[in-house]
Write a structure and sequence with these properties.
328 residues; Fructose-1,6-Bisphosphatase, Chain A, domain 1; D-Maltodextrin-Binding Protein, domain 2; eight-stranded mixed β-sheet; five-stranded mixed β-sheet; 8 helices; globular; binds 2,5-anhydro-1,6-di-O-phosphono-D-glucitol; binds manganese (II) ion
């Protein structure tokens, strides 16, 4: 079953559904097929390496960051279902002001290329996106309030992982489903139906190099992860790819706990709420897991600005609960 067939099938379950969300998802899937094409030949095309500029985060932009961002913006501008976008690579949100877009119901936020530091070393990278129904009135350009909604108001969220296979994972309140790209046909085909995050796991995932900057409670939790305890399966395995999409795709499928906590240098951690922590928490929670900032559910955080960061503890329900009990 292709992505289109699946979303049409799902739409049929809602008599008053208009199929706009399905169209929007198809457009995002199209953009990611273009990105996938560049990712797969990155070593050959002149698409590797630095773009020679820094983004609003002060991070050096890779050529693939810029390419992916432009493809997503152009495809969504041409879509009849998107009023505007916010992106990791743009200082401000972009309101599309053509007659179709101002009458569109949805806005999209995305991290066009997640895990940029892994591009040149051929490790898995991804694209993260999420979709809200706009709060501003139709018929006029979307406004900033459309982009500062809590994650719990999301209509849908998903990611594409450009790995040994290219997969699109898409979550709505109906559940989480995975589609693998069949390159010879150019279609995402349903391969992982109704994905569930295992309630427990044996893998913890964190940039251990930051330990010297963590507070004592977090340090004691990391000690707990490394202690011998047959009953709980410890010591756990440690896996850290350095691409949030890849680390969380493993967590969704095999279970585990991914953490990017605050530290003495980064009081709110590193990962951005709007286009990394909210979409990934929505997906993991729709699959039965938990996404927490360490003090509250990620999806409950009130966004105050587009590029705000939050600490994140996310993955298997029991592992997140254990972590929170020790660090709080
Ligand atoms: P991006 O490439 O979009 O900036 O995201 C990179 C993020 C995330 O993908 C990953 O989990 C994290 O950076 C890794 O950070 P460290 O290298 O500091 O561990
Ligand atoms: Mn990212
Ligand atoms: Mn990015």
């Amino acid at each position: 079953m292709t992505l289109d067939e699946f979303t049409i099938y799902q739409t049929r379950q809602f008599p008053n559904a208009t199929g706009e969300l399905s169209t929007l998802l198809r457009d995002i899937g199209l953009a990611c097929k273009f990105i996938n094409k560049q990712v797969n030949k990155a070593g050959l095309a002149d698409i590797l390496g630095a773009h020679g500029a820094v983004n609003v985060q002060g991070e050096e932009q890779m050529k693939l960051d810029v390419y992916s961002n432009e493809v997503l913006i152009n495809v969504l501008r041409n879509s009849s279902e998107c009023a505007g976008i916010a992106s990791e690579e743009n200082d401000h949100f972009v309101a599309f002001d053509d007659i179709h877009s101002v009458n569109s119901k949805y806005v999209v936020m995305f991290d066009p290329l997640d895990g940029s530091s892994n591009i040149d070393v051929n490790a898995s990278i991804g694209t993260i996106f999420c979709i809200y129904k706009r709060k501003s009135a139709l018929g006029q350009p979307c406004t900033e309030e459309d982009f500062l909604q809590k994650g719990k108001n999301l209509m849908a969220a998903g990611y594409v992982i450009y790995g040994s296979s290219t997969m699109l994972v898409y979550a709505t309140r109906l559940g989480v489903n995975g589609f693998t790209l069949e390159p010879s046909v150019g279609e995402f085909c349903l391969s992982h139906k109704d994905m569930k995050c295992p309630e427990n796991g044996k893998v913890y995932s964190i940039n251990q190099g930051n330990t010297c900057k963590y507070d004592d409670k977090l340090k004691s939790f990391l000690e707990y992860c490394m202690e011998e305890d047959k009953e709980s399966g410890r010591p756990f395995s440690h896996r850290y790819i350095g691409s949030m999409v890849a680390d969380l795709h493993r967590t969704l499928i095999k279970g585990g706990l991914f953490m990017y906590p605050a530290d003495s240098k980064n009081p709110n951690g590193k990962l951005r709420l709007i286009y990394e922590c909210n979409p990934m928490s929505y997906i993991i929670e729709m699959a039965g897991g938990i996404g927490s900032t360490g003090t509250q559910p990620v999806l409950e955080v009130t966004p105050t600005e587009l590029h705000m960061r939050v600490p994140i503890f996310i993955g298997s329900k029991k592992m997140v609960e254990k972590a929170l009990s020790l660090i709080q």
